[in-house]
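Worked example 3 (structure in, sequence out).
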């Protein structure tokens, strides 16, 4: 994608070149012109297609500052931006957006799947080679705590509504804005009290220095002995060794993890062999789900930028998410 497309509209650099050509189609669908990421392309927008290649992004932005200095907005491909935290911090004058909220529906669906699977004993039954005694805890009317107040939580609240669960949302600020279906919203200082007797705990929050290790031994001890913790956010939210100890001791019902620390989880890790642990390999949002959703977000944001309207998925450069 080194040549400028024939479309007219805002000039958008797509990089690294040749990666994810469907994003180029999305840019054009939004009315943009796809150009080379070369410094002389005078692109005002950069859509970054590689969620891992941080160094090349940093170099490209540095070259732009020393050259045309035309880039004003960077669109990142994932909802989580922690790999790019340093680059964002060094370029706070730019507008940064990510896929925040784009993948909320499939990830919320996966969180509910994991919660029900855990409470209903599907991990145990799935490993069984003989008829086993019944086990299971009802989600209907259960006490559920969700950490995080973003799009995944908003979607999950809607999915939980038929169960009549008593849901507490824990977020950085105790604002119920956008969280229809939560019985209460509290700030993180009230996390431990909120966890008392929780049958379901779902992690759906951004990873920051403040939320790293937010669930450790003391927090797990507050949960119901039948409670299941579900993590669809980032593995480092949970202190893994403390979780292993709690699962081995039967202090909680179990854990259903789409993300782990470390990740990928090594084959020899004890979590694999624990009967009260369900692990999925970070598939809350698969490529098949992600491509049409991210393409729609890119197209809409290009349209909004060209029209002078607010773009979606803004990253707070001071908070890092």
């Amino acid at each position: 994608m080194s040549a400028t497309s024939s479309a007219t509209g805002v000039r958008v650099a797509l990089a690294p070149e040749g990666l994810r050509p469907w994003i180029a189609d999305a840019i054009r669908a939004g009315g943009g012109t796809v150009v080379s990421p070369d410094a002389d392309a005078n692109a005002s927008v950069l859509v970054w297609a590689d969620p891992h290649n941080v160094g090349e992004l940093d170099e490209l932005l540095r070259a732009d500052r020393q050259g045309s200095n035309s880039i004003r907005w960077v669109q990142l491909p994932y909802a989580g931006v922690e790999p790019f935290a340093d680059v964002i911090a060094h370029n706070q004058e730019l507008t940064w957006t990510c896929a925040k909220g784009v993948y909320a529906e499939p990830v919320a669906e996966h969180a509910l799947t994991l919660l029900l699977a855990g409470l209903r004993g599907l991990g145990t039954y799935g490993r069984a080679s003989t008829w086993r005694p019944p086990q299971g805890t009802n989600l209907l009317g259960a006490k559920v705590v969700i950490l995080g107040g973003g799009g995944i939580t908003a979607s999950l609240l809607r999915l939980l509504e038929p169960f009549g669960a008593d849901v507490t949302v824990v977020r950085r600020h105790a604002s119920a804005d956008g969280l229809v279906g939560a019985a209460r919203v509290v700030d993180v200082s009230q996390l431990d009290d909120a966890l008392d007797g929780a049958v379901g705990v779902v992690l759906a929050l951004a990873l920051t220095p403040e939320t790293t290790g937010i669930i450790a031994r003391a927090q797990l001890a507050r949960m119901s002995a039948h409670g299941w913790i579900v993590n669809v956010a980032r593995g480092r939210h949970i202190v893994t060794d403390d979780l292993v100890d709690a699962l081995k001791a039967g202090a909680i019902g179990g854990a259903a993890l789409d993300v782990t620390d470390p990740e990928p989880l090594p084959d020899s890790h004890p979590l694999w062999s624990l009967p009260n642990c369900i692990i999925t390999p970070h598939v809350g949002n698969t490529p098949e789900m992600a491509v049409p959703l991210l393409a729609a977000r890119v197209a809409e944001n290009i349209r909004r930028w060209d029209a002078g309207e607010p773009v979606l998925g803004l990253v707070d450069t001071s908070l890092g998410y």
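Notes: The first strand starts at residue 11 and ends at 15. The mean pLDDT is 94.
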